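Our consortium's second objective concerns turning raw sequence data into structural hypotheses that experimental partners can test. To show how far this objective has progressed, the report includes one record in full. It was chosen at random from the queue rather than selected for favorable results. The single chain below, 326 residues long, was entered without modification.
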Amino acid sequence: MTEFNYIVTENDKELTCKELLRRNFSFSSRLMTKIKQQELVTLNGENVRLWIIPEVGDKLTVTLPEETCDFPAEDIPIEVVFEDKDLLVINKQPGVVVHPTKGKPNHTIANGLMKKMQDDGESYKIRFVNRLDMNTSGLLIIAKNGFTQDHLTKQMKADHIQKKYLAVVDGVISEDEGTINRPIGRPDPEEVERWILPVEQGGYDSITHFKVRERFEKSGYTLVELRLETGRTHQIRVHLSSIGHPITGDHLYNNGDPFLYRQIHGDFRRVEGADEVSTSEYIDRQALHAYSLTFVHPVTGEKLQLEAPLPQDIINMIETFKKTDC
């Protein structure tokens, strides 16, 4: 259970408990409402009305409300990279959806987290701060309370969370580094795909920075590091495809503009009832991995620099390319 404490100082004279909360804690209005409704504020260990004016030296304590989730628990592996009472960061495996949807209501990371919670004797509402596509692996942030979620969301909107990815792409990128600055939108609201779309037509400013890590000249592939400045859905996948270097294995964007491709060649997305079929002989999914996160812990103020190593399927593919290039 997370608590926030504050000792009243000389500078706080004549301020009510409510005013002190607003001045010293960055609680959202929604969270503040829950705190008041559940009477989770105490003064020197006793419940207190928020209009009371405390004295210098008094200890004001706020306890965050307890919350739960009701997803069915499933035995899905959860690899913990960092965890404390407020925050959980995991290394998500490919092939698993993050959150239940109408099309995939079970067998998700959320179901695996419920099992982990039961095993650990914990109870909290699962709040995903970032999202990864089903077939993208890597670092996934889960906030265990509303305060942590609100704080991290603000960091993300202010571009204070540094997110880096590694990807293997088709073709050999000639530039050592560069920036892709192209607006991304959803041309058809009935379809999941995004593509380059002018802002005046509903696109959103989108910026991806890239740096070449390694080139496999004979094999015709490149290992590239990517840093997101914005966080649009499918941003990396769309941006890399738009410059002619789609992520290896990407079932949606390996042929460039998916809408134009379907107009010419028909629907390529579903083969024998499968929604996602890799376009590569070397890997069963898009070769994209969220390998690095840097941000400030919302409660402790500690700067966290977390990494998840490349998964074995991408390592195996790279080793194959290296043998070919020898």
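The partners drew two points from this record. DSSP finds seven helices and 16 strands in the chain. The helical segments are 17-24, 29-37, 109-120, 146-157, 235-242, 258-265, 312-325. Both points have been shared with the crystallography group to help prioritize constructs.
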